[in-house]
Specification:
It contains two helices and 41 strands. By secondary structure, it is mainly β. The protein has four domains: 111 residues, Immunoglobulin-like (Sandwich); 85 residues, Immunoglobulin-like, CATH 2.60.40; 83 residues, Immunoglobulins (Immunoglobulin-like), CATH 2.60.40.10; 215 residues, Sandwich (Jelly Rolls). The strands form ten sheets. Strands 26, 31, 32, 33, 35, 36, 37, 39 and 40 form a nine-stranded antiparallel β-sheet that branches.
Length: 550
């Protein structure tokens, strides 16, 4: 009886001691903005991608909108966040703070009818995501108004001063300033209106400075602009823009309206010029552009532009080197304490594997093999295994293994790189086993299906390598739709191939005017290995990888 009483007293004491003080730390559950969209969202100038730029490291979002929306009352149409974070926004910027949603939403239809997501984005907006901790984000919205003006015999692009609301237009010497035909006058952008509208008349008198009023649907007051038209003695501007890649270059500039320039190019070391085909020269209003291809890597070129037989502008540029893929042969490996590393002993790493996480409980599952595609050197053997505690896919990537957290890896994706390859070429063979391990409920539907290997390449302009985390509570993986991904290509194979095959992955460039800073190449024996899902025994052999420049 005494023992029972003592046990009861101890239990009560223990219960209350736990209630008084909780020394168990809260888990790390970071709050990320995973996607956001607003009305009028558009691509930045020179880009074809209108997605918001989300930087999870700096916790910033950048969005560009067109001239169809009022940036001071801009409606958010989608806002998704990680880990069911509670949303807390700066009350001073909300159109109606009491009706702003406190949880993420895919569409406005997901919200209550009375919800109001309009926000004043004329300045950066602070938004806090609350999980177990608070994570402050900054959202920046830039409004891009595409103003375009083209008049008869115009020389170069109109000079538009958006601070003082002045416009200067140059026309050819023979043009009568009192009788100018105006073909395009988007002074207020695509969605605004201008009064008076000079395109309504056959000719417009610009012999003196003229005043115009630009109005937008959301503004009650028009903006006053003054337009000046002057004579010029040139047929084009001296400005010539070039963007060189490894085997091609973009050329652009301005030209007198109604004229088509002749572009010539040569290697700096040679004397003979080659004329770019007129079918490859595009003219729009007073702007022209052309892409020249089949250039030699790491070479200086000269270009010149002529109009009506008169040279108007010239420039030089250097193509980038055709940088090879370091240790693409996969011949160099060394072993330290059961751990196989894909670089020679004493050398610098370019590739790495998730072996350091695997070898905490078993042997390496990404190793060198003599089973090569050409009978010489080494190849990589990447095998998916169940290693006592969890499923681990055989893998290889450009970057470095940072650390192990429990049984989960933290990786650094990407190696410095600034060239423009067109393809990744490699030799592979693959054994596909049935998916029998599922580490994430979202992939239960894959169980019983054939496993697939996954090989992909990406060129990015991240400010630093991407940190990869596989721990479910703080998972952060590579996203091919990241706005910082300049080019991407992938190969997925879900059946067994008994002998080596050569394969090319074509790089699809989303941006042709941005220079890469990093290259990411990843190979995995199980496509969903990041989610600890795949078929035990699935195996990928990989050999003789190279970058192709065409």
């Amino acid at each position: 009886m005494l023992n029972k009483v003592l046990y009861f007293i101890f239990s009560v004491f223990f219960f209350y001691s736990c209630a008084i003080e909780n020394d168990i730390p809260y888990p790390i559950s970071e709050g990320y903005i995973t996607d956001i969209e607003v009305e009028g969202q558009t691509a930045a100038q020179g880009s074809s991608d209108s997605k918001a730029i989300i930087d999870k490291t700096k916790r910033t979002v950048s969005i560009v909108v067109d001239d169809a929306v009022d940036i001071t009352k801009l409606r958010i149409t989608k806002l998704t966040v990680s880990n069911d974070a509670v949303i807390s926004i700066d009350s001073t910027v909300c159109n109606n703070y009491s009706k702003f949603p406190t949880s993420g939403f895919e569409t406005l239809d997901d919200l209550m009818v009375s919800a109001d997501t309009r926000v004043n984005f004329s300045s950066p907006v602070k938004l806090t995501l609350k999980t177990y901790q608070d994570y402050e984000w900054t959202i920046n919205v830039q409004q891009y108004i595409e103003r375009n003006i083209v008049v008869e015999n115009q020389i170069g692009n109109a000079i538009i001063d958006e601070i003082n609301f002045n416009v200067i237009i140059y026309v050819a010497e023979e043009q009568d300033l009192s009788k100018i035909k105006v073909t395009t006058f988007d002074l207020a952008g695509k969605n605004g209106s201008v009064y008076p509208d000079p395109t309504k008349d056959e000719y417009f008198d610009f012999s003196e400075p003229k005043t115009f009023f630009a109005t937008y649907a959301w503004e009650e007051v028009s903006r006053k602009w003054t337009v000046y038209v002057y004579h010029s003695d040139g047929a084009g501007s001296s400005e010539l823009n070039t963007f060189a890649r490894t085997t091609s270059a973009d050329i652009s500039g301005s030209v007198q309206s109604g004229k088509k320039p002749v572009i010539e190019i040569k290697k700096n070391s040679e004397s003979d010029w080659t004329t770019v085909s007129q079918s490859d020269v595009n003219v729009s209003g007073t702007s022209f552009s052309a892409t020249v291809s089949q250039l030699s890597p790491d070479t200086q070129y000269d270009i010149k532009v002529s109009v009506d037989g008169k040279e108007m502008s010239s420039a030089s540029f250097d193509t980038t080197p055709a940088t090879p893929l370091e240790n693409g042969s996969l011949d160099n490996w060394h072993n330290v304490d059961k751990l196989w590393n894909p670089w020679e002993e004493g050398g610098q790493s370019f590739w790495d594997t998730g072996n350091k996480g695997a070898t905490t409980i078993s042997d390496s599952n990404s190793i060198p093999t003599d089973e090569t595609c050409n009978g010489s050197g080494k190849a990589a053997s990447l095998e998916s295994k169940y290693l006592v505690l969890k499923f681990a896919a055989g893998n290889l990537f450009t970057g470095s293994y940072v650390k192990t957290v429990g049984t989960n890896g933290v990786l650094s994706f990407g190696r410095p790189f600034s060239a423009f390859p067109s393809k990744l070429r490699f030799n592979y063979k693959y054994t596909s086993n049935t998916i029998d391990k599922v580490g994430d409920d979202a992939f239960q539907y894959l169980k019983g299906r054939p496993d697939s290997c996954h090989i992909y390449i990406a060129l990015t302009d991240w400010d630093e390598p991407l940190e990869i985390r596989t721990r479910p509570a703080e998972r952060q993986l590579f996203d091919k739709n990241d706005s910082k991904v300049i080019a991407y290509g992938e190969y997925i194979q879900g059946s067994t191939t008994s002998s080596y095959q050569q394969k090319d992955i074509i790089l699809n460039y989303k941006y042709n005017n941005r220079t890469p800073k990093y290259i990411v190449v990843v190979a995995s024996a199980s496509k969903y290995g990041d989610y600890f899902t795949g078929g035990e025994g699935s195996k990928l052999w990989l050999d003789e990888m190279e970058l192709v420049y065409e």
